[in-house]
Known about the structure:
CATH architecture: Alpha-Beta Barrel
Number of domains: 1
Oligomer: single chain
Number of helices: 10
CATH superfamily: EAL domain
Order of helices and strands: EHEHHEHHEHEHEHEHEH
Strand content: 5-15%
Shape: globular
CATH class: Alpha Beta
Largest sheet: 6 strands, parallel
Radius of gyration: 19 Å
Helix content: 40-55%
Distance between the termini: 23 Å
Strand order of the largest sheet: 3-4-5-6-7-8
Amino acid sequence: MIMGFSLPHDHKNINSVNRPEVLAPGQFMPLLESLHRTYLLDYFVFEEVCRFLRHRLDAGLPVVPVSSNFSRHTFIMPDFLDRLEAIRRRHAVPLPLLQVEITETVDAADHAAFQSMARRLHTHGFCLAIDDFGVAHANLATLAEVDFSVLKLDKRLIHSLESNPRLLKILEMLILTSHALRINTVAEGVERHEQLDILSGMGCHEVQGFLFSRPLPLEEFQKKLDTAAPC
Length: 231
């Protein structure tokens, strides 16, 4: 995951050069989107993911599947699958180690292109995840219309899980439906053990959130991965 770009503070101060400023994605992503250049960052991140996995495979180190987020503009580009496959082949990374993650917020005019690309990715063997499900444009129609393998439940559906009986019923329905469709469910934003217990009881396949870890620099993530017990 790219956490931000690093830039020197003051070129006149050598000490400042050694302490780069970290820019959060919210500080540069709107500019890339306005210029229709998000695809440059999307493909760069995917290539870095493939390079990272290839290095660990060559070194005989443990690996786990890695998810790469793509903007909707990149996703509906006609050559999207071709470019992903070219990068994957360049680094010889097995398909099961790569997950394509997209937030289903496409405009109505682009919906057909979104569905078509999702089908192509599914047929090719890429694992496709729908992020932030349950808010904005991500709706029940997505379950019927789009070929994907992972449904990531938005953290806003999880936040008041213990105190909202109506929300419990909705999540239970979504998870049961996903089971029937052979779609893996991932609950985002899990922060409390009570939430984990409820989701586990519902049969949610995976969870993520601050209960387990905050976002980590790559070096710290690798240390955790190196010492993790095998599944």
